[in-house]
Write the structure tokens for this entry.
Amino acid sequence: MAGNLLIRNAHLPLADREAASWSIRVSGGRIAEVVPADAGVPEVPAGTETVDAEGRSVLPAFADSHVHVPESGVELLRCDLTSCESRDEVLRAVADYARTHPGEEWILGRGWALPHFAERPPTRQELDAVCGGRPVYLANRDGHSAWVSTAALDRVAPELLRNPPPGGRVDRDADGAPTGLLHESAMQLVSDLVPPVGAEDLRRGLLEAQRRMFSYGVTSWQDAIVGPFVPTTDIYDVYRRAAADGSLRARVTGALWWPRDASEGTLSELVEQRRGCPPDSRFACTAIKIMYDGVCETHTAALSRPYVGVAGAGTGLTFFDHADLGRAVPEMDAAGFDLHFHAIGDRAVSECLDVVEAAHRANGPRDRRHQLAHLQIADDRSVARMAALDVIANVQPYWAQADPQMLDMTIPYLPGELAALQYRFGTMEKAGVRVAFGSDWPVSTPNPMDWIHVAVNRSHPGEPDAPLFAPEEAMSLRSALRAATAGSAYALRREHEAGTLEPGARADVVILDRRLDETALDEISRTRVDLTLVDGESVWAR
């Protein structure tokens, strides 16, 4: 599908006014006209291809404001555990992978879930038994913990295991021996020893994941870590090459990694990297990623009050000295970067807003797209500050459900007043905070219809009888659709290209398999994408 295109008989859920159906004319890869059917069919040049939407819903293609695409693609090519639903399934999958990949020195993978090990944490001995003594490194679903084998631990200097880097924890058994579970920066004790991912494997991962994203109607995204955090996130070059040779069809904004040991020259290095990716290219690096705290499930998210019943956890941790970051952030802001903070706990949210406010004071007004990602716990004062500072709420709505990770691994350990302040999308929207949706894939599903389902229903997709989680924070369907399209495109600085069907925008369009206004809210997750267009050309069809 190339050249001129006409989409007829379309239902537009995000149109500013109602019409029985609409026609969308595409010319030169851009939206040329969007007119109601009662105005007649637009005149089109000879040779124009026509697609009949047959009354199905048509949307601007989705944008994902926080995702790890090449990394997710690489994980699809490794020992992928994301579909496993129990401890036994995980161990069978690891054993099967080890048996069918006898030539691999390391068993590498990702995707096991902490709730499946709630009764008893995973151990290195279990991996030893199914992997024949090979070194094993398996990141969990959220990427904040790793399960490793004895052979992997044996490659780490004993003094490093005894004294892990700041912000890291090595779990130990009753005798003081490492169990095989590493958290946060302690993961790097083993991940730094893993053979580097080759450029070709990263490229294969990127293209495989791009196909997956297109199948869900996602044509633009923000890659939330571009830099040497773990081997699969050092993806600057693979994106640049794919943009140069045309294999990158999506529009990508890269968030350059701010290292925890940043030096005086770090910012200059990131400025140079940004210069190598022009803002109008398929890959532009306009943001900096700062991972400020951990996650609630491992008691490393930074809270204002201590965790309940967890010896030694205190109020969690942060990965940067607050005063140091308060000096560095205004410099990043002055250099024109958008700042993308990982902030889970309420203390992390408040402290990140402190440094954003310092940047405003130091540098005065400008077009900023600073954003707090995840925002699991936020009090009223922080929500009001986000609105006042025009900080984007970069949220992962799929997490706002009463699943085992929430019910068994989070709520019991949070002070009650904080447990009641989780995933406050409705409150943020009412306060005037800009909301952008993201997946954090491979942590959770890249399918926007699943995120939208949870945002609207506050329950697990496909389970109409599932318990609701803070239903007062639900969003309307229209608001959720906007957050997954225009809201995320704005966070990416792609709002003039993506997230809209306005004339002049790039013709990134999805046709769904149904009319959303005739779909029950608890059936939203059943919606599928029939056709995905980039610049008016088909990149995926069901």
About this structure: The mean pLDDT is 94. Residues 199-491 form a domain with the TIM Barrel fold (CATH 3.20.20.140). The first helix runs from residue 69 to 77. The radius of gyration is 23 Å.
